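Aim 2 progress update. The chain analyzed this quarter is reproduced below.
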Amino acid sequence: MATGTMTPRSTADSSKPLFHRTSLPAPMFSRNDVSIWSILKKCIGMELSKIAMPVNLNEPLSFLQRLSEYMEHTYLIRRANAADDSVERMKCVAAFAVSAVASQWERTGKPFNPLLGETYELIRDDLGFRWLSEQVSHHPPVSAFHAEGLEEDFVFHGSICPKIKFWGKSIEAEPKGVITLELPKHNEAYTWTNPTCCVHNIIVGQLWIEQYGSVEVVNHKTGERCSMTFKPCGLFAKELHKVEGYILDKSKRKLCAIYGKWTECLYTVEPATFDAHKKCDKKSSEEKKACKRSSVDEEPEEMPPPSDAETVQVIPGSELIWKITPRPDNSTKFYAFSTFAMQLNELDKRMEGLLPTTDSRLRPDIRAMENGDIDVASAEKKRLEEKQRTARKNRGKSTDAWKNRWFQQGANPHSKTQDWLCMKGYWDRKYTQLPDIY
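Predicted structure tokens:
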């Protein structure tokens, strides 16, 4: 485990919950007055990470904080650890991989781009983990993270380099990067990549989100894998939010089927039962399409309505392995945040003297937006971006190269791909020579 000595209670009195708020200080801003088209019309097909966006389009979190929402359903890792059978463990790990993107449902606000050298820590005694992330590259933007169980029962790490493009009516975010989960008790390591996220109706209409693409979770010890497809919504939105696939052994024999919606829940069932259901469902769908073609002459809408009223059709004999945590009643007022997300930027007085000066909670633009001061947030965002540009130019004039503080590049020990690995020292709380980024 590439970290220092465990000090899980270094930022909190265990008798008093550190994270407790159930709302933000101020509700979200209206985005009706922002002309997205005026900003994006020259950017079709371009990478958007270099384009400055109005602060109104943001949500009051850094992308480093947004990444930590992977950990909301940490109980699935503990369930995997408790399972004696490798297939049962794979079910839980696959559910954890799906749950990691569930927080994006209805989250149409853009997180703030992290500044080079920005960090974010999160210690949750109640969920049994601690998290560290750092922005290790600005162009291209790369965010590295490392989480570990407080009982040393798991290690979860990876890096994300989001490729964001505008396609005229939608914005597509491809989160490039390998994610790794290690279970020391079983001497197992799992790796996977996240699906592509797309926000539709950027110019006109109601914003809605879909995830699509293939996700393959690999157990590097047993050779077992879970191959899942995040379905694109399709012409009539029939596949909206659906996820399905199989757990396979190293000979690619189907051991278990997995299905559900990344916005709602995930089930497993015997492969033969699932295949029979799919065959029946396909036949029924083709009959319905034939009926529509014979009775409707006009062309269907180009984009389906963002309706997801139909819940998952549960196949008899299925086992529920994950269900999303319900969002609070006030979520729509606060950027569609979950309770977990509401607490990510919470700054307890006991933390102020312990956090490094690079922590996302100390960013003035995010803090101002959270407090409802859009003018200050906008001014601070511009100031920080200019400060970052100036620092980069100054480094170009000197022989001093930028050095990341907590992560270094290296080969992923399991997938052998290039990765960012956590170095020791952060949790010792001896911070020196930190960059002045705010």
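The longest strand covers residues 155-166. The chain is about 25% helix and 25% strand. These observations will guide the mutagenesis experiments scheduled for the next reporting period.
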